Amino acid sequence: MAELGKEEPERRMLMMGNEAIARGALEAGVDFCSGYPGNPASEILDTLSKLADKLHFHVEWSVNEIVALEAAGAAAFSGLRALSAMKNLGADVCADFLMTVNLSGTRGGFVLVTGDDPSAHSTTSELDTRNYARLAEIPLLEPATTQEAKDMTRWAFDLSEELGLICMVRTVTRISHSRGVVKFGQMLRRDRKASIDPQDMWTSGSSNITCMFHGILHEKIKTAQERFEESEFNWYVGKEDAEFVIVTSGTGWLYTLEAVRLLGIEEDVGIMKLGTTWPLPRKFVAGHLREAKEVLFVEETDPFLEQNVKIAAADMAVTDVGPIRFYGKESKHVRGEFGAGTGELNVDIVIKALAETRGLEYAPVAKEYLEKTQKMLGSYVPARTMSFCAGCPHRASLYAIKKALKWDGRNGFVTGDIGCYSLSMLPTGFSLAKTLHCMGAGIGTANGFGNLEKFGMDKPVVALAGDSTFYHACIPGLINARWNGANLLLVVLDNATTAMTGHQPHPGSGINALKRLSPKVPVENICEAIGVETRICDPFHIDEATRSLYEMLQTKGAKVMIFRHECPLAFPKEKPATVYVDQEKCIGTECGCAAFCTRVFGCPGNIWDYEKGKAKIDEALCNGCGLCAQLCPKGAIIVKEAA
Amino acid sequence: MSRRLLERMFEEPLNVIITGVGGQGNVLASKILATVAVESGFYASVGETYGAAQRGGAVMSHVRISKDGQYGPLTPQGKGDIILGFEPVECLRTIGSFGNKKTRIIVNPRPIYPIDVLSGATEYPHVDSVLQAIRELVSSVYVVEATELAKEVGAPIIQNMAMLGCLAGAGLTPFEYEAFREATSEEFSEKGRARNLRALELGYERIKTLKPL
Questions:
Q1: Where do the CATH 3.30.70.20 domains begin and end in chain A?
Q2: What does the alpha-carbon distance between residue A619 and residue B159 come to, in Å, rounded to a whole number?
Q3: Which of A174, B161, B176, B205 is buried deepest, with most CB atoms within 10 A?
Q4: Is B186 inside a domain boundary?
């Protein structure tokens, strides 16, 4: 990691897209960085936080994305260079500020990096944040390679300063989480001083002032468009003045190149690669579509370029471009498994679109081979749904909730939230959660369910929140529940880290992004201040945890149970206990409800010895938590503490 | 960008896919392999799926190595040249999307049971049948008990390094073993370096004693 912070211009290094974005910010001499962890953007701040001490700039994990963007905004108003990085749904959280800071402008370079997740690998939405750039009228850059991820981030600061306007860099999972070779550039010297001058007024105003700022924003975006016409991030390759042109951005660039090559049509088509996608560089686009009769759009998620180019083409139809037939998501030629405009792109999707529009045949493998593999897969490849890690405290917590709800007998249910414990919707979390949306929606929806008694709702509701999620988005929901008398039990799954995104600290950790000691803000202090009954329990004390939850379900009002146990991945034991099955004692499938440990509890470390018909521990997975030993009705699981 | 550059980008790349289950160390193995390629003067792109990485889902890393240019992070269907299977069923699943008759396989035959199997919702096939199916679909298969090798250095979890050692020793890539050793040394701090290098070495030595199926 230290390598990333070295000067060494011209050095070539393999790096992840997110590291490249961090390097771009370093080369731009960034002063202030903020964000909230979320896939696929987390490693941008992770990387910067490891270099901040040495290079003397500010990095913070903020409590949520809007605080992050506002804090970065303040640094930018003060003349510093500031960056905020977040996942796609994080852009939603900070949208309020974004829709006003565009009007107030900036003095120092101000860059927002959003990480979209086409195919929603680890997100609950395929939201395409490019729409925010159009909505907020701010310049948008879309890197197509790791190299561009660095170069564009760096340039975004210059552009932002020139325009006095926040700029956006949109990355996606396949840029952020890919690795490629990146050539370093010069690092800018940093000697900026922060100041707010007496005449400064950073605001979107109201009334006439707002309208005036709105007019200025239109002018700024027009200047951005002029810069984009000349941008080195846009280019055209292939047949000059082609009749068939592929217009692409982001990951689509390399996928298109490969698809064109695999189909052997390099001589027949032109490829226009756009890196500056909002505002659209119309003259550049028109210049390469002069002879075009057909255009295919290749881009991630929404038909964003597609719509913008179509609008531009309609405007320019009389003078610059002739009638064009457009192919893409709106024509359904570019489509994934779930239809056009869903799922992430890949080379095969581009090949299919090209084959269909150009009347070509392409078979990646012979038909017989495909049939044979499908048959083999059908016979020998079971599904593999995600599960909690071995030793995960969430499994214990959810098991306690499941049992307490069963004792309660009113068919209570769970509202889920965002984190590893989102798996509460799946069998590994005993399929307890009935709702799952965005950060804070667990307690938010529980506020509604908990106030539906007069409409016949007779089931108790348990809302989940991780510790980091609690700070991020659950406090207003808890205050609301107290204020409006919602009946709900909030279970805070406190594993002392932001586990899902790579173990970043949070306000309860006692350390900050730089791993320096910082004051703790304990969850229980906040809950008690709100005035709700609050209990704390270690979920690995499974009987006590279950009993306590059951008791809390028997009274009305809003209550909080904090299940506190550290994530074993973030805080591994130096010498974990050895757990094994005494197969003499194990009664195999005769037990309880037939193999209680594997069938009911579902820890991947509890496996089955098919030869002996008894339980067994997978020593490669088990991390010695010993909870299964507490649950085994026969006491056949033995925990041997390390010496 | 010139046409020449466009053409240069498309010499046939070497597509290595590392497949397994979240927590098996895919990402690390792919990073080291790509570093080996870059340090040996090649281009490398790596595409990997996080998210499920620590949560028992199927995970895959694509390492695309080229002499002449950067490729996209995902291998097209049927274009996998080498598949490093950390788990037998996941190896077969990956062949389903990226395998072809010429694909070469190195597979760790040790199952990691899906939660769906443990709960009784579905069954895990006999490992021999899975290996047989793999054999029928590709050109060559090395079966390496990499978890057992990793146990020899006291950490079954680092089968990933043993498997990487196998790749280095199988003669399927143009890279020197020393480059693997160097990249591995670089990757680990003092604490884990020795045992990871040892696992790499055990894999490297073991594969030389095996004949592919």
A1: 578-640
A2: 13
A3: B161
A4: yes
Q: Return the CATH number of the domain spanning residue range A393-564.
A: 3.40.50.970
Residue range A86-99, pLDDT digits in tens: 999 999 999 999 99
Q: Are A330 and A304 in contact (CB under 8 A)?
A: no
Alpha carbon distance B201, B181 (integer Å): 9
Higher pLDDT, A509 or A596: A509
* SS3 of residue A275 by DSSP: coil
Nearest Cβ partner for A606 among B112, B118, B133: B118
Give dist(CA A249, CA A302) in Å, integer.
Answer: 12
The rounded distance, in Å, linking the Cα atoms of B170 and B206 is: 10
- Whether A387 sits inside 8 A of B115 (CB atoms) is yes
B-proximal residues of A, 113-172, CB under 8 Å: 121-122, 145-147
**Alpha helices for A381-465 (secondary structure H):** 393-408, 441-449
DSSP assigned state of A599: I
Query: What is the reported pTM?
Result: 0.96
Please name the residue of chain B whose CA is at the shortest distance from the CA of residue A568. B54
How many structural domains are present in chain B?
A: 1
Measure the CA–CA gap between A285 and A326, rounded to whole angstroms.
14
Architecture of the domain defined by A235-358: 3-Layer(aba) Sandwich (3.40)
Contact list, A428 vs chain B (CB under 8 Å): 56, 115
- The beta strand positions in A520-632, using DSSP E, are 533-537, 558-564, 578-581, 606-609, 614-617
Residue B189 lies in a domain: yes
In eight-state DSSP terms, residue A526 is: H
Judge: A14–B51 Cβ closer than 8 Å, yes or no: no
Residue B5 lies in a domain: no
Task: Tell whether the model's pLDDT for residue B6 goes beyond 70.
Answer: no
The answer to whether residue B1 scores a pLDDT higher than 50 is no
Tell me whether residues A377 and B9 touch, CB distance under 8 A: no
Taking only residues 105 to 124 of chain B, the set having a beta carbon closer than 8 angstroms to any beta carbon of chain A reads: 110, 112-124
Residues B8-21 pLDDT 10s: 444 479 999 999 99
Judge whether A100 is closer than 8 Å to chain B, CB to CB.
Answer: no
- CATH code linked to domain A578-640: 3.30.70.20
CATH of domain A2-191+202-229: 3.40.50.970
Mutation target to probe the A interface, by most A beta carbons within 10 A, among B59, B118, B134, B135 is B118
> What average pLDDT does the segment B177-203 reach?
96
CA angle, residues B36, B37, B42, in degrees to nearest 5: 150
Cβ within 8 Å of residue B173, ≥6 positions away: B14, B16, B65, B82, B167
User: Which of the four pLDDT bands, split at 50, 70 and 90, describes residue A189?
Assistant: confident
Residue B4 counted as domain residue: no
Rounded to two decimals, the ipTM of the complex is 0.93
pLDDT confidence band for A595 (50 / 70 / 90):
confident
pLDDT tens track for A385-403: 889 999 999 999 999 999 9
CATH code of the domain in which B31 resides: 3.40.920.10
pLDDT reported for residue B53:
52
Share of residues in chain A with pLDDT > 70 (%) = 100
pLDDT tens-digit series, residues A204-226: 999 999 999 999 999 999 999 99
Identify the closest residue of chain B to A609 by CA–CA distance.
Answer: B118
- Chain B contact set for A351 (CB, 8 A): 76
Model confidence at B54, pLDDT cuts 50, 70, 90, reads low
Domain carrying residue B177: 13-209
In chain A, CATH 3.40.50.970 sits at: 2-191+202-229, 393-564
Residue A9 has pLDDT above 50, yes or no: yes
Task: Give me the residues of A, 318-347, that contact B with CB < 8 A.
Answer: 346-347
